[in-house]
Queue: 4 jobs
Job 1
Amino acid sequence: MATSRPQPQQDRRAPQALIVGLALLPFLALCALTFAYAQDAPFWMDWYLADLVDKAFSGALTCADLWRQHSDHRIFFPNLVLVSLARITHWDTRWEVVLNISAAASLLLVVARRSAAWTWPLLSVLAFSLAQWSNWLVGMQFCIFFCVLASATALILAAESGLSWPRLAAAAGCGALASYSFTAGTLVWPVGFVLIAAAPRPGRLRARFLAAWSLTAVAVMVLYLRGWEWLPRPTFVETASRFGRLCDALVLLGSPLCDYYRPGALICGAFGLAFAAWGGLKVSRGSTNASAFPGIAAWSAGTALLIGLGRQGLGEGQFLSSHYVTLAVPLWLADVALLGRLSSMSARRGGRWRAAAAVLAAAALANSVHGSLGFVYRGGQQQLWREELLAGGELQGLAARWPDRRILSARLVPILLRHRLSCFRGEAPPAPPWPTTISVSPGAVDGSVRRVALPNGRAAYRGWAAGADGEPAERIIFVRGTQPVAITRPFIPMLRLALDRRKASLLWSGFEGVFEEPPDQPPLRVVAAARGGASELEVEAP
């Protein structure tokens, strides 16, 4: 009787090495883009930390400062980590970006340990998706990444059938970390209660675990709400329909697969949620410790519903915002893990589940590639605004998002200068010279610009500009009367323009400038300079 020859060990290791290699690719792509675009200057929500960092360097920081309510959130632990890191690095915000990536990598490891090896590349595409481009380069968004990590870890620990008191304590500790990092973290407590109640174990032990979990949840929430200031609900939320809120929640859940088309995101969100419910029931019948995955999906769904309740009415594009994608990623990580479990349960249907995973991978990868354009856009913005900060100009671009330009100039930027922080850690480079005369010749530069009125007395100038050789313009100069007020350069991808004109060089020819501009004030003049000369672009009305 012939005996089968054992397969050489290196042959068995080869597929696993290939899987690990494929799983590393999304991580390496994210690291490469981050290395190219991360800046050592605060941007957007980063400025919230300025007062805390100021107190840390002045020796006046207290726990009450770190505990202070931030909008609808308690972000004590992110505050503690970020301020400590700023103290060590003199607020080099590039290290905060490393924290964001580290939290996403930790989430991937937590889920991958309980998933089939062949799903690791797909889990990696989702965890490091560039569709989250609005979060990756902003250190303050660590509160979201850390909340997702702590919540998923808490639910995985709570769902184990072999739950012990040390594991329950660890799960409750992760729940507290999540709760005091972002409001969505508080959903860990009701979801965890259900998971503990559903796991097979003796009734008396289950009751003790549930009592301990409930008492911890009450204590955490009592402390959470101590000194809480309830914010007024916007009027548009009161008039929002329940059906509209549900649809917006589903759109948010589908954004990791389709954040560029609302109906597609709605369909993806509904499918992903339904599969998590069905797959969770299917897997839980033949496998232990599988309830963590539908639990994670339920946490993500609850988060989407909370956001829908609070943000519905802000417009159809609100729930496709990339900073919400991070909160929807856990749903799809859970779905992929369930696909792996279903595939191992049935050899006959394993091919079907892998085919479904391939379709999901294609959608997630396409969405990540689409998000790379947003990543480059945001990275280009931050590069320009760092230069604007160093030049000491009007800070019009830097104030385009938040906070107000007057607050930046009068209070926040002086903090950086006083403690030599961020991009002012060393000697500040000399400000670039402003043009004293601009020689304009019609036709030297091709392009267009459109003025768009914004709320609060602001206006955006958006367009594109390229020289006669098709290369993007070198400088865009915004002029009020005869006085230049801002200088920028093209940094926005213009894919449709490049395709229509069949010139790849036009891809990076887009630009944008945001300025304080009352309605009764005449529009700015926009001059584009290239190697062949400079031309004034006609400003189109909205």
Job 2
Amino acid sequence: MSRKKQHERPQNMHLAFSYFLKTLKPWRIPILISLLLAIGATVCSIFGPNILGQITNIAVEDYQTTVLRAGGKIPDAETLNQAMNWGKLSSLAITIIVLYLTSAILNYIQGVILANVSARYAKRTRAAILDKISKLPISYFDQHQFGDTLSHISNDIGAITNTLSSVLSQIITSVTMVVGILIMMMTISVWLSVIALIVVPLSLLFVALISKKAQTHFRAVQSTYGALENSIEEDYAGQSIIKANSHEAVSLTKFMQTNQKLSDSTWKAQFFGALAFPITNVFTNFSYVAICMVGGRMAIDGKLLIGSVQAFLQYVNQFNRPITEVSQIAANIQQALAAAERIAAFLEQTEEVPDLEPALKVAKVEGQVEFHHVDFSYGKDPTIKDFSVTIEPGMQVAIVGPTGAGKTTIINLLMRFYDPDSGYIAVDGVPTREMRRADVRKLFGMVLQDTWLFSGTIEENLRYGKLNATHDDIIRATKASNTHHFIESLSHGYKTEISEDSDNISAGEKQLLTIARAMVADPPMMILDEATSNVDTRTEKLIQEAFTKLTHGRTSFVIAHRLSTIRDSDLILVMRDGSIVEQGKHDELLKANGFYAELYNSQFEEAE
């Protein structure tokens, strides 16, 4: 999504509502049809009380006529039955039944249409959010919590679709009913209509004041949902660490604080959202009592038929019901608009700078990598300063240094997770900034300290970097990486299912599988980032053997704190505070007796 096509980020409910309407454009026609059906259903139901009033008037009039003919005496049932105009009464009864059935059918059809639109809207919005995630830079994920982003897909979309499927038609129905009933009431009695209308402005004023108060709390509810989901996700994923450090009480306290905040916000939002109903109901009851008194007096005085009073009272009840319903659904509307505001803000996050077109490409990868006066910072303070080095094809380059020296940042720049602030990185003479990010990342295979395996079989995980790899390709890679025997020893071999958190295999086994996955992908160059930090000495030896095979003839980058693992590297870059302070081979650097020697010797002192 280009910046030109993005909507203005909503900062209030009005702009959030505008954004919400714009997202409904693909379904304008079905929504319009649904709303027309809702209007038709409401109009059919509006005539009900009028017809019932006519039935009452006819029955009363026939009764009074029969009494007058009998000289004021109460007629018997048979005489009264003969005097009734059953033909007209039956016709009116059939009419009202047809109207109510038509109203029910139209309501059902429009409900089905809106339910379908709601489901399709949710599907499209989820797809838009996932598409947005794929276009966001790594910096976004460094700065935002996972649970908050997940909340957009679950809670925020749920709040909007709930409003779309039920509240939208309810609003149209309420508006139509108010207008239609007002017209019917005016045809019966203007004075009674004035009494009914007096309370409307008061009701609307209170609803507006309460709704404004509730908006703040509904925003807080949607925001806190994200924080709560993130807290749950972190605690669930880190149970072993929490238990190992006896951190249960602290984690529970932190969770309870967030949960209490959500509870408080939800309670306040629901309280103010629901407060509108009893307030409007009080005004409704006042007008209802007044109309009963005045209408009854008018009937006694002969100014109004009793059936008309009955119809008017039904209309009053129906007239105030839409106002009450609007006050009830105001809470849902505010929640949906708060969710729409959050989704709009997320979809307008700055995306990765588009790749240059036409993009350059390395015709035949040799493996020369050049860093030319590279400067980079995540914020104000520089992380990499004037970094320059040329790596020849096939070299194994080790990057070492204390924590925070910028080692992982170099890898992030190499993979184009970030672009340098100045200077450039080139592969075989082609600047990576002028290549497509996907093409740059295909040049490298990565084995990281933080292993990542997804739910599925071991074979599916190994094929992740090369989807068209055959089973024989996988077998060759696992044998070369010393993982074949370990996999065969599992209950179902290559078909063994890895659990959601990969907790049915050890940390060392996970690391071996990630190396095998890299070997299956068979990339031109390799990156090994602290890949042996979670394994024992024997497994480390197996990994080193596998990595030697994997990097043979390939340019490779190794980040390691355990300096004994990189003694055979062709080039060691020693970093401190974002700059290269020393470079050379292991023996040369030890003889120089500089910073590298200090780091190397300190590790052996610690070991002793």
Job 3
Amino acid sequence: MHYFRKILHFAKPYWGYALLNVLFNIGYALFSALAFVSFIPMLDVLFQQTKTLRARPVFEGAGSLKDFVQDTLNYHVSSLLESDPSKTLMLVIGLVLTLFLLKNLSNYFALYFITYLRNGLLMDLRNALYRKIISLPVAFFTEKRKGDLMARMASDVIEIQNSFLSILELIIREPLTIFFTLLVMFNISVKLTLFVLVFIPVSGILISFIGKQLRRKSAYVQKEQGHLLSIIDETVNGQKIIKTFNAGPLFIKRFGISTQRFFKFSNALLHRNNLSAPMSEFLGIAIIGVLLWYGGRMVLIEQNLDGTTFIVYMGLAYNILTPAKGISKALFSIRKGDAAAARVLEILDTENTLKDKPDALEKNTLEQQIDFKKVCFAYPGGPSIINDFNLTLKKGETVALVGQSGSGKTTIANLLNRFYDITSGSLTIDGIALQDIKKTALYQMTGIVTQEPILFNDTVANNLRVGKQDATDAELIEAAKVAHAHEFILQLPEGYQTAIGENGNKLSGGQKQRLSIARAVLKNPQILILDEATSALDTASEQWVQKALENLMANRTSLVIAHRLSTIQKADKILVLEQGRVIEEGTHETLLKKGKTYTNLVKLQQL
């Protein structure tokens, strides 16, 4: 319940529905008890045991309320019996039907209003999770499996939703049903009711003993479900590699191991869960059996309880056992919901290490330059990747980073985008530390084209509008022309309104990259980051796109990462990196004259 209580604040906007649910649950509990009591006059009529009263009863105070109600009922029933027994029976049956109708109407409206509460909580919780995931830094997603995140947002949230209904039943409906029923039972026989109350706690202790391990076993199941989804996600995304490397048997084995663990954990959980129902039923029947023995003695031997009242009393006793079993089921459900809540809250409570400072600046224009001074960076617990990196990138300049894979080029771009914070040194824009600038303002200044095109399962037009949602159709077309994408877009089945599939899988690699470039062109950023932007293009497309990029980079501050050195020959400055350090710096011509690492890289690509 510790974690589940934290989830309850998501129900605050729906307190009105909760109140209506409580009111109708009170009605359900009250009419549930009265419905059984209404059988007494009907049975008395059937067995001709109605006490005949000639004078109307007089109310003599709260202490005699039970006798007053019973005598009043007997007075009216006996009066009607003398005139029309058939009409009397119909009226008594009508009373029974009316009370059961009110009971079930109350039950329907209680469930009707809780539906808004449960689904509203589900909606708000998922929205909160999604907002949190959007706000978390990139580093978080390198540590978490995608499938596990999907499981938490899907199955875990639904488990919480189902448990929420259980907790309201546990707090309101079932206890009130037991309370009102016990009031009536005490009015019928204090001695017999006290006898019943001795056995109910015993059954409750036995049931709660089973439920103690449910939360732990449920957590195992939910965690393994997340692992299963991760394997499925990797399998779908890695089909080409799996098939090419004949790795199908390996992945089948991995999946089989995971499903075997899921099978084991699910069995343990369901065995515990399934034990609750038969145990509750057996304990209930045991209590009924004891009642039949003890109550039968009161009717047949002691003769201080009449038969019709005892029959109704047995119905009332059963009316207690049903909500008692409901409470036991609710406890099991809440145990499972608490485990799911713990997994959801782990995401919601994750600290964002890249939060804006309270006094962060709304700086969204680059006026002078970007400065890296003795910048060092290392992932938590890992070796240093960037070491004493220095760079001054003036407004309007184009600086290229080259070097072998793993030299730190992309990491520099990630630091400029503040996907990570530097470990030491300083990184400033116009003398203002990157950490002192609001991230939304920083991202308004920057645009990026990544090595692997990142597109979304939407139309071409909506993918282009990601960075500028109010762009006109004319602006879309102009940006696409600059990126040499307009021609192939027109050839798609629905042009700019064509859905391109997950990650743009309906397009070729070159087409996807040109859409990524067009998206950056449309945003028109002040700081442009090109991370291997032409790596997926064929030679002909590369020439067109390179011209477009040159036009795009004109009078714009650009940081270009390139393996194809032919694309950066016009850069104002080229930095050669090796193991996170700058080992050469200069223009294309000056670096060639030095005849060192850069020259060797150029010669290798000319072979």
Job 4
Amino acid sequence: MSGNRKVSRRKFLNKSLKYWGCIYSGSVFNYIKVENRDEFDLIIKNCSIVDGTGADEYKADIGIKSDKIITIGNLSSRTSKKYIDVKGYIVSPGFIDIHSHTDIDLFVNPRAESKIHQGVTTEIGGQCGSSAGPWRGESLEKIKKYLFERYELNVDWMDIGGFFDRLERNKSAVNLASMVGHGTIRESVMGMNNRKPLKSEIDEMKKLLMKSIEEGAYGLSTGLEYTPGSFATTEEIIELAKLLSKYNLTYASHIRNEDDRVLEAVKEAIDIGKKAGVSVQISHLKTIGERNYSKIDEVFYQMEKARNEKLNINFDRYPYIAYSTGMDILFPLWAREGGNEKFIERLKDNQLKSKMKKKVIDKIELLGNWNKIMICNTFNKKYNYLNGKRIGDLAKENNEEPYELIVKLLIENGNRVGIVGFGMSEENTQRILVHPLGMIASDGSNAAPYGKLSKGKPHPRYYGTFPRAIGYYCREKKIFDLPAVIKKITSMPAEKVGIKDRGKIKEGYFADLTIFDYNKIIDRATFINPHRYPEGIKYVIVNGKIVIKNGEHTGNLPGRVLRFKK
């Protein structure tokens, strides 16, 4: 045999044998270290899959490589670096919170404790007209001051893009997408003034909106019950929303009123969608106050009619009968004009304070009585002991008139008092949750039972929304079946917002998965004791990495910023 043929034979042997980790040299086999030949990084065995599409549960294994679902089927003969046997558990897509207030708080606690523990893998922040930018002028200085006072957090960005960049450097346990807030844009351009914008101002707002979309925002949100969004006319919102139509982005709105004028407010949202040519998402749909409960039929009729007329309209709602907001929402709009300092000045003016009282009393009569309002957060540490107390009981204990009590609290907390209002009916809540146009969302932000995010008594939706929807409303109340509720918290939100390759268990999709015990999943957070994780969540996987394992946080931070791309 010639020398060349010996070399060729050796090459052939080495090429064939290298797969098994050895090389041939003369008559000797030498073993070498080779890279792992496993087909998958993780195989999840014995899955009962509810895939997010609304289809029935089925059995299969799931093979994950890097951050993607590669194969679904019988993988018993396939190899993997890691295996999880989940026999007896439901495997669903990771939950997508379509209306979240998580954003900047991920810098305070990137573990996203209250959300990841309830199975949330993706959050859509920037809601109710407020987002993590863009800020300009006084609004930038104000947010810098507020965030440093509250969290000792230094703001080193001005725009949505800068926020996204910092979050990518900082890392978090969950994926985050964001709308851009109309209120944030308007305040940057016009301050807290109650007037129509000049042409130059509307042009500047359009520039900031377009810049935010170019930086990755998934749409525009409004908070038309809050200042400064409440100062905007319908025409102003339409002008801005028109910019979304080119990219098929969504207009999400905390509508102008959720009680006595809820029908007019829903109609306004529909009109904006039609005239701007955009998809509409009505945030946390509700009809507050017993005298308004029956209006839910007309609300549904309006939306169903608009849908039949080809408007892409949906809504979301949390599975509780109480809302949560700032105490100043009880006061008339004119009193809140100009921002917190102006509002506090008016509260200190006895004549103006008396003028405001009728509006506040009307709100309380709408709810029923002062005990329908519970304090959940106070900025001044001196008043932290009030968190969890009802206004009526508190006033009686201190022999104070309730209205005078809330005025005092607002003044001494710089208008930073959070409340919970018990204003919705259980029957309507169930009808809203089960409606085919509805999705389920927390309307809550990132909290934790420890550290700076443990303050106060936040609404239990922060910790319990999704386990409550599945455990209480699906398993116990049986208002919908499991595939239906999973669809409302996975593929529906992803498709509504336009997030690709998430929200379903499907080959080629990102490996965001929530694995839970259907017989045990339930919320444990209450209004008095809200900082409690739910039960029944076994594993939560984000981008192929395990974040919750056997109910405990692993410390992994594999979440990503999800930017809209044109």
